[in-house]
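Hi W., the LLP complex you wanted:
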Amino acid sequence: MILPTAELLDRIPTPVYFYDLDLLEATLKALTEAAGTDQRFRVHYAIKANPRPQLLDIIKSYGLGADCVSGNEVTAAIEAGFEPGKIFFAGVGKTDEEILTALHAGIGCFNVESEQELYVIDDFAREEMMTANIALRVNPEIDAHTHRYITTGLSENKFGIPMSQLDRIVGIALRLKGCRLMGLHFHIGSQIRNFDSFKLLCERINALTSHFDRKGIHFSSINVGGGLGIDYDNPDSEPIPPFSDYFRIFRENLNLAADQTLHFELGRSVTGQCAALISKVLYIKEGDTRRFAIIDAGMTDLIRPALYQATHTIVAIDKPADAPVMKYDVVGPVCESSDVFATDVALPELRRGDYVAIMSAGAYGEAMASRYNLRDLPEAVFSI
Ligand code: LLP
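Structure:
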């Protein structure tokens, strides 16, 4: 992505999320081309990754639907102009108010995560004289080989309906008058770079759909969730995720019937590379064993390194090519030892007032910012 110059940054407050909207558009072009012309493939954007209205506006214009996990996200999707029928609502703990918000908005599908939730949605739908389209979220017991906090498809995770209960709960869903069972939903985790997990997911789904076909139960939609990872180590060489390879896995391995739609809920791979968190160097501190670059961004602005031991490439902005290279621990100002962006990272010699860019921060960056320590929320600027 194209970073702003130090001269421009001198005129805006930091820390700041810098969004490269051209890169977002290029990513969406690549995504929609890779998804291809097969009308059965339907891509939704997982709003949780980044709900910025400026981004939603562009994403919607490429025809994507929205994947939401709260009533407020459903409202944000509606306000951004996503077609209600293309809005899906997932989450293990939907409140009564959220269910009603989504019902009244006329969303396309509730991804239901438990038997009890099914009854609650059915009750509300009947009270409102409506029918709720639903999919049952299945926990497929597949290891996504990613960080344990972003693995969702194992039996120890809180997500989805265990496969052992699926027959029974499908039977219930088919009998409910307020619900129309559309299909099955899966999501095995996030930041998945090893496509074998997706292949395994296809095989699991094929087995399940043929099992139900034999019982005379045919689903009109299959939802494989999100999870496609991005390259945090080489954002410049892979600014656009490998969408073609990703969709090919499903095209080649999933037995999709002619009358079935296949839904994807991609978050990180859509917006992840289009933003950097830009921060000013406050102090350089020589410790006894380490050299610290203390910057004005902290874990409150980007929590991924502290929460998931995630690594984001850090680059110094506008430093001369012949500047000596030094090793730094790049740390934030928050009163927590985990407020560290990188350890032992080689950077051109930094001075107070220099700027660094923490790359690949467009997904789960600004969206997860907090006001801990009563810090201000980060600002955002957009390339034009
Ligand atoms: N669908 C469902 C049901 C999900 O739970 C998620 C993400 C997605 C789709 C989108 O997944 P993606 O394509 O973005 O991988 N904060 C963490 C990631 C949490 C992901 C939560 N669920 C991080 O910064 O790595």
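Residues 196-214 form the longest helix (19 residues).

W.
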